[in-house]
Amino acid sequence: xxxxxxxxxxxxxxxxxxxxxxxxxxxxxxxxxxxxxxxxxxxxxxxxxxxxxxxxxxxxxxxxxxxxxxxxxxxxxxxxxxxxxxxxxxxxxxxxxxxxxxxxxxxxxxxxxxxxxxxxxxxxxxxxxxxxxxxxxxxxxxxxxxxxxxxxxxxxxxxxxxxxxxxxxxxxxxxxxxxxxxxxxxxxxxxxxxxxxxxxxxxxxxxxxxxxxxxxxxxxxxxxxxxxxxxxxxxxxxxxxxxxxxxxxxxxxxxxxxxxxxxxxxxxxxxxxxxxxxxxxxxxxxxxxxxxxxxxxxxxxxxxxxxxxx
Length: 310
What we know:
Blueprint: H1 2-62, E1 80-90, H2 93-106, E2 110-116, E3 120-128, H3 132-140, E4 144-154, H4 156-182, H5 186-218, E5 219-228, H6 244-295
Parallel strand pairs: 1-5
Antiparallel strand pairs: 1-4, 2-3, 3-5
């Protein structure tokens, strides 16, 4: 019985290993199949080029002349995550915030986050990636742009890898379920269920990442910081006012005031201790003097001096 159990467990482990290997082969074959259409397209383009050359030769032989126009290829834009940060000074923050929200809504986007007070507002807009350039241009018209930051992250390879891994993981799960249906030993069933749970968890993680990438690539993130434009710009101090002697005098006065502040702070901190010392020390000194006065003996009286006899 133990030998049969051992053989069954070994068989299950071998099948699981073969399943994992076949998953890798499927992923590789999936990438190969994805590359095959591109090769086929390349071959078709080459054939098309040959046909065009043949047509050109026919034209030259016919005496019509002319040049062969090169084929126009349109580069396909991959999966890109766009992020834009804008800082704009405007005369009316509340009105500009409402306008920015309307621009996002009209373009098919939405306001993901908004934080505002009396003098500033920050809006996080999610807008369609394909139209985010035009949307940013409209937002820049709200006021004076003081800061602009734009980033683009290409995640085309990650999207393709995630899709391929999801397909391989699903095929692997199906094979493990087929093995579990054929298993008869309780120990083998437990091992297969554990492996199945692990692979299903990996599949859930891949699906979650795929959904996250889809959201990031389909909608661009535009963060707009709106600041209130001050009516009167702050007056700049004349450099000559604090130059030379006046600058030194101002620095010396500042140092004097700082030193006086420190001295007053120290004196204020010592006042409570001085008062306490006086309240306790004065009675103690008076009591000590009284005790010394009561404990001392009066000096002996000296007899009066006698007058000498005549």
